[in-house]
Specification:
Blueprint: E1 22-24, E2 31-33, E3 35-38, H1 49-61, E4 66-68, H2 79-92, E5 100-105, H3 120-134, E6 139-144, H4 153-165, E7 169-175, H5 179-192, E8 196-200, H6 214-221, E9 224-228, H7 264-279, H8 284-292, E10 300-303, H9 308-318, H10 325-336
Parallel strand pairs: 3-4, 3-10, 4-5, 5-6, 6-7, 7-8, 8-9, 9-10
Antiparallel strand pairs: 1-2
Helix pairs in contact: 1-2, 1-9, 2-3, 3-4, 4-5, 5-6, 7-10, 8-9
Length: 337
């Protein structure tokens, strides 16, 4: 499909804040849109920048104020932030105060012992590099991307506290932390005087681990929750209803979603869920995202996209009526079978 050129001048839709609902992030002063846009995939150096620009414009036109990045998003590493850094001054600089821009560090980024995990040296250096790539003075949220089994939690949380006090970030968060370590990190940050704003775990119909304990901890501690992979890397969309397309994530050689993840049992459930979606005038993707948002403790669902129409589809789905108890019960029966 050809990528249509976008106009040079960008003027956001003046009605953008009527297009989407916002939820308060824990007990903070920040509200996030129900849908946030992640730049994990399709914003790297290998991707057409005009399509990236069109997706960012579409998102903001629909009231999506939160753009989520990380140091190693690409490919290659760092290139998603570089792409954003090329688009930001042309389209979004006048609207900087309307945006929540986040980045993360924790996974491998550069060679050697200081290029990943959770040391103070790595986190501060990585954020400095991210700010340079994006052309920003600060990020709104900076996350520690994953727990470090070897670095003391006090050092990692102390680095996040320093990052806020140094003006590099307004808020901090954690990602991929399990319940026990999440509570410890949250309490430690509070004691340091830099409260944890938000936790970013994976959550979808096929991966419900946060329901057992984490979601209650975040609610008790007053911390927001933004869930990634609400479509299970695209399984909960119409992409795989007729098999595995070669241009899908499961059809690419380097991806987190493997063909073996799409088993006959999974596909059978997906087909049944798709019928429930159709019966309720929703697409499967809309149903899956709205299902994650049924939890009031979930502040926002973080989606990826490969084209603007996908963003429009998900946002329009949130404007439809909430899933009824009867629909939720039918979904539960399918998922528990």
């Amino acid at each position: 499909m050809a990528i249509l050129p976008v106009s040079k001048e960008y003027y956001p839709d003046p009605e953008r804040y009527q297009s989407i609902e916002y939820r308060r992030c824990g007990r903070s002063g920040i509200q996030l849109p129900l849908i946030s846009l992640g730049l994990w995939h399709n914003f790297g150096g290998v991707d057409p920048i005009e399509n990236c620009r069109a997706m960012l414009r579409t998102a903001f036109n629909l009231g999506i104020t939160h753009f989520d990045l990380a140091n190693n998003y690409g490919p290659p590493y760092g290139s998603a932030e570089e792409t954003f850094g090329k688009i930001f001054p042309k389209d979004f600089r006048p609207y900087r105060d309307e945006l929540i821009i986040s980045s993360k560090a924790g996974y491998d980024m550069w060679p050697g012992p200081y290029g990943e995990w959770g040391s103070r040296k790595y986190l501060v250096a990585s954020l400095d590099q991210s700010l340079q790539r994006m052309g920003l003075d600060y990020v709104d949220i900076f996350y520690h991307h994953r727990p470090d089994p070897d670095t003391p939690l006090e050092e990692t949380m102390g680095a996040l506290d320093f990052i806020v006090r140094s003006g590099r970030a307004l808020y901090v968060g954690i990602s991929n932390y399990r319940p026990k370590e999440a509570r410890l990190a949250i309490q430690m940050l509070r004691q340091l005087g830099t409260p944890c704003l938000i936790h970013q775990p994976n959550y979808n119909m096929f991966d419900r681990w946060i329901e057992k304990e984490l979601i209650n901890i975040l609610d008790e501690e007053g911390v927001g929750c933004i869930v990634f992979s609400p479509l299970a890397q695209g399984i909960l969309s119409n992409k795989y209803l007729q098999g595995i397309p070669t241009d899908s994530r499961a059809g690419k050689p380097v991806t987190f979603l493997k063909p073996e993840n799409i088993t006959p049992e999974v596909l059978e459930k997906v087909l049944k869920l798709n019928q429930i979606a159709a019966d309720n005038d929703l697409s499967l993707a809309q149903l899956a995202v709205n299902w994650t948002l049924r939890q009031r403790a979930v502040t926002s669902a973080l989606i990826g996209a490969s084209r603007p129409a996908q963003i429009e589809e998900i946002v329009s789905g949130t404007m439809k009526s909430a899933l009824s108890g009867d629909v939720l019960e039918k979904i539960e029966q399918i998922l528990s079978a």
